[in-house]
Amino acid sequence: MTYDLHVTKRHASILAVLLMIALILVVYWPVQSYDFINYDDHGYVTSNSLVSTEFTSDSLLKMFRNDYLGNWHPLTMLSHMLDWKLFGPRAGGHHWTNVVIHIFNTILIFLLLRTLTGALWRSAFVAVLFAIHPINVESVAWISERKNVLSTFFWIVTMLFYVWYVRFPNWQKYLLVVISFALGLMSKPMLVTLPFTLLLLDYWPLGRMNTKQYYKNQASEITNFTLRKKTIPFLFMEKVPLFILSAIFSCVTFFAQKNVGAVLSLQFFPLSSRLANAVISYGLYIRKMFWPFDLAVFYPVNYNMSLWQVVLSILLLIVITVSVCIYFRKLPYLFMGWLWYLGTLVPVIGIVQIGNQAMADRYAYIPFIGLFIILTWGLSDVLKKRFSLKITSIAVLSITIGLTIVSCRQVQYWHNTFTLFSHALNVTQNNSVAHSNVAGELLMQGRANEAMIHCEKALLLNPYDYNTLVRTAKAYELLGENNKAIDALRLAIEVNPGYAKAYNDLCILLLRAGKVEDAMKIYSKAVELNSNKDNLELQYNFGNVLAMQGHYADAIIHYAQALRIQPQNAVAHNNLAILLLREGKTDDALKHFREAVRLQPKFASAHYQLALILKQKGLIEEADHHYREAICINSEYKDIEKKK
Fold first, then answer.
1. CA 41/CA 75 separation, integer angstroms
2. Interior CA angle at 374 toward 373 and 377, to 5°?
3. Which of the residues 9, 60, 179, 279 has an alpha carbon 20 to 30 A from that of 530?
4. pLDDT digit string (tens) for 421-441?
């Protein structure tokens, strides 16, 4: 008996999608047991009081009003907020959300290219490269890069809506393009180059531009529809609303970054150096596509770039660009893919320098799609002419297996902050950020002497780094050298007076030294400087100090402010209730004690205080319940009652 095995294009597409999902799960399966990274994850998620608050109209509005770490991306923050409701502080759930979005992005890239070109297996291979290339590990395995995977989702959805629009033009479909583009920009403003990329789609593979193309396979690739030719001015005018959105979000992002001091001044990093770094980075990204074995979470800027590096990078870019232009009609995918790569990297290539990184793996998440298209379509043209299908299949399989193995290894470095930055130290040079973060992890383990070695190396490279100074102070504190710790914290405050961490740490050391008045002055200054920021720790600690000094009315104000920032803080509710009770505001105190035990059912002292108030009010049965709860949690309260 013989069977006629007939695989339709639909079945082949389903098979390709299942393969992509399987590859992604193989690579990223371990992340479910990984930790948060103490590098942006705390700012976006674990220490962000707004993320852990309840869904209310006020909290949702705050998401749209605030810029987090210099970024305005409310949709991304809403996704973090939803994750916290689902998974709480369990990092594995947050990681899985990134992985799931990456799966959707991979499938959507396949569907987009499949729809545009009709080339099933080439579209699938581009999607596979996107799915498992090691350079994309940073975007997927780093919870803070939710903005990257989420914005890319809307990037591809916008393109799919655009294809739908150009096939059957009307204003409703165009409105969907605009809305999905706006949602993408609210996830991450790097999408500002999308209108230019749509123009590239107009050239190839849509073929809407009124230019001649001689690619012999072009006609057969667009299988489902043909489009009318349009003039280039018309295609530009068609995208004016999108260009306007790009301009608005570019300005918003620039000022948000500038407000937090993330935009590097030309005085420290002149334009000539930025241009040199940009051309070198363009070349290095290409190198990392073919040789992804030295990837790091942070690449420090090289302020002493050699001339030969710049010249070689410029020559590489010129040679590729000239070659692409020569074949832009015969092989239009070269032109489209190359300009996609060059153009989508522009916002993050460093002309406007944000931070001290020379480049970043996460920046390649979208741009590499252009290079993957060039690689896939180019290899297909070459291999079809010179080799058999069997040899071509072996080559594709070898690339897939090789990238999967390298990506699996790269994912392992993201297990925790220590493994991540230790690896960065191994593959980069003069990396002050990596030294500083390794020091931070060593301090959490109480290994102060080892941490101090890394702090000293970091300060040697960057003497005025705020985070390193704070960590140095902590190392001195653990080593018993409090005066040196105080000096380091005072310098940190001079470097960045807008950050609250150094103020808190400094005041704690001053209080230990009995310098209460000095601590009060510093807290007062910190609150004044951070009046426009929601800093829970600052408000809460200042309330504690004021209460210790008998300034109850002022302490109440700061406890209330802390609860405005984080309404679920049971200890703040308890402390506020105690002060309200002192001020004779029994009903208000009762309300906050009730909230404290609701949020933290094992809060013995809150149960006991609540029992006392309820007894005074004649609510004996309820008072007995809370009294019994207090005794169950802490038997000492039974002795307290006996002494009374």
1. 16
2. 75
3. 60
4. 999 999 999 999 999 999 999
The string over 524-553, giving b where at least 16 C-beta atoms fall within 10 Å of a residue's C-beta and e elsewhere, is: eebbebbeeebbbbbbbbbbbbbbeeebbe
Half-sphere exposure of 104 (CA within 13 A, CB side): 15
Quick one: tokens of 620?
């004996």
Q: pTM, whole model, 2 decimals?
A: 0.89
| Tens digits of residue pLDDT in 93-147 | 999 999 999 999 999 999 999 999 999 999 999 999 999 999 999 999 999 999 9
Residue range 180-210, pLDDT digits in tens = 999 999 999 999 999 999 999 999 999 898 7
Q: How does strand 299-300 pair with strand 357-359?
A: antiparallel
Peptide bond between residue 195 and the one before it cis (omega within 30 degrees of 0)? no
Partners of residue 71 on adjacent β-strands: 68
372/642 Cα distance (integer angstroms): 77
Element (H or E) spanning 185, and its range?
helix 171-185
Tokens of 446: 């109480």
> pLDDT, tens digit, for every residue of 7-42?
678 889 999 999 999 999 999 999 999 999 999 998
Dihedral (Cα; 313, 318, 320, 321), 10-degree rounding: 130
CA–CA gap between residue 93 and residue 535 (Å, rounded): 26
Candidates 181, 60, 242, 467; CA nearest to 475 is: 467
Identify the residue whose tokens are 């260009």: 243
**Residue 336 structure tokens:** 């489209």
| CATH class of the domain comprising 569-644 | mainly alpha
Parts of the chain with a pLDDT under 70:
1-7, 68-70, 211-226, 256-269, 353-355, 387, 530-534, 637-644
